[in-house]
Amino acid sequence: MICANCGKQSAGILKAVRITDKRDNRKTDIPMRYKGSPRPICAGKCWEVVRENAMIWSVPKRYRKYALIEPVFESRGEQNAK
To answer: How many domains does the chain have?
Structure first.
């Protein structure tokens, strides 16, 4: 699979961004809804851009030091069903 942004080998189809609150381990999934998502994305610079945008748009400034942001990829079964 090829990354939709840069054309490099992708890590998988990014379905959502999971934000974990490090204080109480509360997890929140934010689905990807832009430019025909979900779409393949590489684990390098493209993921860093998505991660940074998720931090800016979804986490209030005073809580950013407590947030852990990680990708949620589609499972193989979901990819094969399409």
So the answer is: 1
